[in-house]
TrEMBL record:
InterPro entries linked: AAA+_ATPase, AAA_lid_3, ATP-dep_Zn_Metalloprotease, ATPase_AAA_core, FtsH, P-loop_NTPase, Peptidase_M41, Peptidase_M41-like
UniProt cross-references to SMART domains, sorted A to Z: AAA (SM00382)
Broad class of where this protein is predominantly found: membrane
Name the record gives this protein: AAA+ ATPase domain-containing protein
HAMAP family on file: FtsH (MF_01458)
Amino acid sequence: MGLSLLNIISKSNFRILRPKLLSNYVGTNKELVCTRYMSNYLRKIPITTSKKHNIAVHKEIAAVNKLILRYTHSQKNENDGKNTDDPRNAMMIKIMMAIFTVYLTVYVISMLFPNASNPEDMRYVSWNEFVHLMLAKGEVEEIIARPDLDIVTVRLHEGAIIKGRKIDQRTYHMNIADLERFEQKLREAETKLGIKPGHGVPVVYDRSLNAPELILFLFFAGLLALAYFGRSKGGSKSPISLDMFSQIKRAKYTLIDPLIGQGKGVRFKDVAGLKEAKQEVMEFVDYLKRPDHYKNLGAKVPKGALLLGPPGCGKTMLAKAVATESNVPFLSMNGSEFIEMIGGLGAARVRDLFKEGRKRSPCIIYIDEIDAIGRKRSSRGPEGGGDEGEQTLNQLLVEMDGIGSKEGVLMLASTNRADILDKALLRPGRFDRHILIDLPTLEERKEIFEQHLKIKLDKEPKHYSQKMAHLTPGFSGADIANVCNEAALHAARNSQKVVLEADLDYAVERVVGGTEKRSHAISPDEKKIVAYHEAGHALIGWLLPTTDALLKVTIVPRTNAALGFAQYTPTERYLLSKQALFEKMCLGLGGRVAESIVFNSITTGAQNDLDKVTKIANAQVRQYGMNDKVGLVSFSEDKNSLRPYSNKLAALMETEVSRLVSDAYFKTEKLLKENYNKLELIAEELLKKESLNYEEMVKLIGPPPNGEKRAVEMYEFNSPVDTKNTDSSKN
């Protein structure tokens, strides 16, 4: 232990207690006892300097002692994990529990139905059959009543004759609803049949089995067996131990501790983009490194921060980077890991997580996807909110309130659904900072591509990052990583030595539209319809001024059930005008209108387009206040909330939505009829080549009438890129 501890202490930046001095004491003193007090060998250090130097030495002694405690605590947890997480022990427990369950099930069934193996012995008769065919003929020898099963067993005389035939089966059963009145009912039937009192059929009550009591007895017997066999003579844990129940309550966190070299740390340089978010979380790093500086100014260190934003944008990586840069332990858990079927386990795991955090302070506790336990509490819950999820949330609120400013425990959490979190969780004092981590901008996407384009390329990543950033608006960091990986996989499938430009283009196309599915055979008539449909989209986008630049149009079927698609290169726009939204609707209707003009019929291929068009029209009328008749109002799309408007206004909005879609349809129809020859040229070329790009469209029908659209959106891989005038900031 001495050498391992010495390595850890040597890595620490102690200015007074030099590693050589520590090495002498660790090497010579074999009685290294790590308790919550200072180790004896450290107290032997002679201190003959000034008072200021004396105080500094004591501070570093306390720091070394805390490091020793953390090391021994980590070693203890590792040893406990080895004892409790041995695969052989876990397998033995599962086998024993399975055997016990199967045995108990078979035993109970066999006791409830003792003759289930012989179908002949399980024959049931009705009351009338019993009275008229058995009792009246004098063939009944005795009756066995079983009150615990509500069943009576009728035993016949040997050689009994039923319905004029001699039968071999002597045992029959009857289901009786009320066994307390059974014997009285039997005697009344005997009296009617002329059987004298005292000469009737004897009734025997069998109470040898009580199923509920038997199951309860076996359950407690099993618990006692676990408790008994769990105590071994040597004091070590047996494979079957009651300690397995206490292990369930422990928080199953992931630990990253840079001081003892446990886990892989992530630094800010590993997180591309997120400049504003990095700057904000850097303050937390400074809080953990220099808490006295803020306390001297009277400032209170924030207790926690909530990272908000879409999935795949780097929230978890940023939280890990904060812990690594702060050089403190990082305890990470997923929100769903707190919730179990057994009541109270979630709250117990929250307590255990914060208990471990206080032991390792200063540290960072991180809960990913906190919306799993932080949902809004309902007043209609059982007994005012006594379910498992609300108990876990209440315990989390209590623990966050219990974090003192002197404890050095910082709480971080992330979610992509902040709207469903409980207000008590979001208030200052629990999560003091709400940090938004949004989808990356153009410049941030360029940095992320340079980070992930460390695959084997034929050129430097900078040659590709600018264009790839323009081709992927709206992509998250995870999407960009997926694109780079898909490009490398495509190059490997083709047995290439390096990743080429075509592989990157293929990867973007695969993520956006899916993989080509050339084995999906369609008839020539359907292929012609698809060609005119996609030609309609491409031509409308070419003619209108505010639509995005066309990158590629294809009629090759895709694995996502699309028979063709047109790919565009959207610009970085955060505000859309009424005209831009209207022309987006025209672009979506281009395929349906082209089908109607050319074939004088329509198909189901425009279903996805109509869905998008309807959403845009609804948003203009209901949310953006862009309709003159409805007015400057905005209504939420929450289906669970009550509708804050009358039926008359609802009918008016539906009418205006329909009118808006109709206007877009007629505008699209007019454009396509005026440019019908261009529509035919594009469709015929698609039928020949199956795919067209921007340059081929220019050669075919000429440049866009409203000016070049690709001046700022597209860059060639082999051309120099000037990024000084590129505007990627948000409005």
